[in-house]
Q: What sequence folds into this?
C-alpha cells in the first residue's frame, strides 16, 4: 500500500526557571507538555531550560519559534519582579507590552473577593501587543498566545489546566504511535537484531531502554511510527525474533 | 567590607533522549546534575533536551561548550544503534572515534562472567580521540571526558555514580548559597517588597515560588548569593518586613 507523505508538526518548549537550574525544584512540565503534544499529533523536538535572564530567554525564543510550528514556554508569567517571560517574548517579537483588556477584567473579577487588584497583580494582564489569552480556571491569571508562541505558568497544576483548555485547538499531524516490547535480556546482547529490525520496517524508530529489576537485567524496546499497522508488524517481528533466540518477550504496553 | 570579585564557573547540560521528548520518561538527571554542580561551586546556566539525532546533538554541543566552562551530557552512550552521543561529540570536536584501551579492558573484565564482550558491548569503549574516562562502578561501561565535555549515562542511578566519582575533581568558584523564607501570603501582595529587598542587598537574587496547601495560599522566597552574611542579612530584612505587615514568615530551610 502506498503511504501518503504526511506533514510532521513540531514544537519546542522553553522552561524558564532559576529554580530548575539550581536543582531546588524537579521539573514536571517537560513530561506533561510532551505527553499532551503527542496526543495533539505534534512532536516535541527540543526543550531548553533557561534562567530568569532577559537575553537568555530572548535568544531561545527567537531560535526555537523560527524552526518549529509551535513554541511553548512555562514559567515567569507571575506577579513578581523575577517574572519576565512576557517582556522577553515581546522583545523577541519586536512589539511593545500592553495591558490586555479581557485579562484585566478577568483579574478584576478574580481578585474582587481576594483583596483587590494591585500593581503587581495587574502585571499578569500584560501581554505582547496583539496577543490572545489561554484560559486558566485555576488561578485567574490567563496564559498568553502570541503568534506561534504559547506562554504558560510554571506551576505544573496550572499549566495542566491551560493545556486542557487548548486540547484540540492546535493543528497537528498524525500522532506518533508506540508499542513497547519488554524482555529479560541485556540490550547489548541483541543490539544487531534491534538495528536490523528497525531497518526492515520503513518509518519506524526503535529506542532501547535498559532496566535492572529483581536482580535481573532487562530492557524495554519502544517502537514508534505514525502507522499502526507498521508498529504492530514491527513489534511482532521483534517478539518472534526474541523468542527464536530463547528469550521471553513480554508486552510492555503502548 | 570590600568584596573580592570572584570568577563564576558555569556549566551546561545536554539531555539526549527521545524518551524524554516523547513524555514516556520523566527526566531525573537535570535535578541531580544541577544539585551536584551547585555543591562543586559551578552554576548550571542552561539545559537542552535534544532527540537522538546527530545534527541536533552536534549543534547543541558546539554552542554550549563554547560559552560555558563545562558541558555535561546524559544519555546515548550505551551499546545500541540509537546511542550516538560519542559520535556526535567527536564530530563536534573534529576528531575520529577510537577504542579506548582502558575502557576495552574494563569491559573485558566486566563481561568475562556475563557472556563475554561482543561487538555491541565493545561500542561502549568508543571515545572521541584523546578522551579520558569517568569511572562507573555500577555497570562497567565508563563515562567519557573529552576536553571540557563530560559524557554520562542516561540511567539516573549510573549517572549518580559517575557524578560521585567526579566530586571534588572540577575547579569551581564560590558555591551559590540560598536561604528560603516561607510565608502564608500571596506573592502578588508583596511583590514591591520583594523587589526592593533584592535591590537593597548587593549580589542577591530573590526568587518567588507560590504554593497552595491546606486551602491556603503561600510562597517560598528563595534568597541566593555567594556571601553567607549577605544571605542572612537579606533573609532577616525580609522576615522583619513581612512581620511588620502582620504576616508570619517561617524558616523555609537552606
A:
Amino acid at each position: 500500500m502506498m503511504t501518503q507523505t504526511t506533514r510532521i508538526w513540531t514544537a519546542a518548549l522553553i522552561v524558564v526557571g532559576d529554580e530548575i537550574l539550581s536543582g531546588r525544584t524537579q521539573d514536571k512540565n517537560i513530561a506533561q507538555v510532551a505527553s499532551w503534544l503527542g496526543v495533539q499529533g505534534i512532536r516535541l523536538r527540543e526543550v531548553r531550560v533557561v534562567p530568569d535572564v532577559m537575553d537568555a530567554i530572548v535568544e531561545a525564543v527567537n531560535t526555537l519559534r523560527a524552526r518549529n510550528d509551535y513554541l511553548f514556554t512555562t514559567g515567569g508569567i507571575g506577579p513578581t519582579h523575577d517574572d519576565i517571560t512576557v517582556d522577553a517574548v515581546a522583545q523577541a517579537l519586536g512589539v511593545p507590552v500592553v495591558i490586555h483588556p479581557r485579562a484585566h477584567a478577568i483579574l478584576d473579577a478574580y481578585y474582587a473577593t481576594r483583596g483587590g487588584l494591585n500593581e503587581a497583580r495587574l502585571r499578569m494582564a500584560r501581554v505582547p501587543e496583539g496577543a490572545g489569552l489561554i484560559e486558566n480556571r485555576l488561578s485567574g491569571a490567563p496564559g498568553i498566545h502570541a503568534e506561534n508562541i504559547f506562554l504558560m505558568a510554571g506551576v505544573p497544576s496550572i499549566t495542566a489546566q491551560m493545556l486542557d483548555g487548548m486540547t484540540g485547538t492546535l493543528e497537528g499531524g498524525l500522532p506518533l504511535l508506540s508499542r513497547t516490547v519488554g524482555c529479560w535480556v541485556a540490550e547489548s546482547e541483541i543490539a544487531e537484531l534491534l538495528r536490523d529490525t528497525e531497518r526492515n520496517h520503513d518509518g519506524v524508530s526503535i529506542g532501547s531502554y535498559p532496566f535492572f529489576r529483581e536482580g535481573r537485567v532487562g530492557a524495554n524496546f519502544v517502537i514508534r511510527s505514525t502507522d499502526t499497522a507498521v508498529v504492530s508488524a514491527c513489534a511482532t517481528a521483534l517478539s518472534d525474533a526474541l523468542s527464536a533466540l530463547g528469550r521471553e518477550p513480554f508486552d510492555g504496553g503502548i
